[in-house]
Amino acid sequence: MALISEKMNEALNEQIKEELESGYLYLSMSFWLQEKAFGNLAHWYYVQAQEEYSHAKKFIDYIIDAGGTIELKELKKPKSDWKTIKEIIDAGLAHEKHITGKIEELWNLMEKLGELQPRSMLTWFIDEQIEEEANAQELIDKYTGFKNDQLFDHHTHRQE
Ligand code: MG
Predict the structure, then answer these.
(1) 22 C-alpha to center of ligand 1: Å?
(2) How far is the centre of ligand 1, averaged over its atoms, from the C-alpha of 43 (Å)?
(3) Closest by Cα among 106, 108, 92 to 143
(4) How far is ligand 1, taken at its centre, from the CA of residue 105, in Å?
(5) Those residues with Cβ within 8 angstroms of residue 29's Cβ, 6 or more apart along the chain or in another chain
(6) Burial tier of 102 (Cβ tally within 10 Å: 0-12, 13-18, 19+)
(7) Residue 31 and residue 89: Cα distance in Å, rounded?
(8) Per-residue pLDDT of the chain (160 residues; tens, 9 = 90+)
(9) How far is the CA of 21 from the centre of ligand 1 (A)?
(10) Distance, CA 129 to ligand 1 centroid (Å)?
């Protein structure tokens, strides 16, 4: 007997898609920045993309552990016609707010179904989204301070 309901299984499969699309979006940002020779910020978003794939993997591991089924969905083509660095970092924050909303929906579904097993995992994601939004906001604040693309890129660093 699986420890995951069909509804929760489907919702988590949808969330895997959201995380993979996040990775795809950040890759699109990273490659645009790389083309324009903003190497540090390109690296920042490349590392962020890898993190999104690790988020997807957490959901995948949960579903399998709980006896559910993984269904990978079709991914949306990410925006690629970026105009400015500011547009990218604003889109990054907006996207993380969207993901925070999706995690909250999963929490609400869990409560509605009375299916408590994903609680620890979802708590991790709720905490993670605080960090994700803070990181995205930090880029915007830093950019606002420098008001210069090259200086901003020069002072943007991210560890693996
Ligand atoms: Mg994520």
Answers:
(1) 6
(2) 17
(3) 92
(4) 14
(5) 45, 82, 88, 91, 92
(6) middle
(7) 14
(8) 789 999 999 999 999 999 999 999 999 999 999 999 999 999 999 999 999 999 999 999 999 999 999 999 999 999 999 999 999 999 999 999 999 999 999 999 999 999 999 999 999 999 999 999 999 999 999 999 998 999 999 999 987 6
(9) 9
(10) 7
Which residues are within 5 Å of ligand 1 (an ion), measured at CB? 19, 22, 52, 55
- Quote the pLDDT of residue 160: 66
| Ligand 1: centre distance to CA 18 (Å) | 8
CA 138 to chain centre: 16
Find the 19 Cα to ligand 1 centroid distance in Å: 5
| Å from CA of 17 to ligand 1 middle | 10
- Going by the DSSP 8-state scheme, the letter that residue 3 receives in this structure is S
Read off the DSSP letter of residue 116.
Answer: -
The Cβ-side half-sphere exposure at 98, using a 13 Å CA radius, reads 12
Number of C-alpha atoms within 13 angstroms, CB side, residue 143? 16
Architecture in CATH for domain 6-154: Up-down Bundle (1.20)
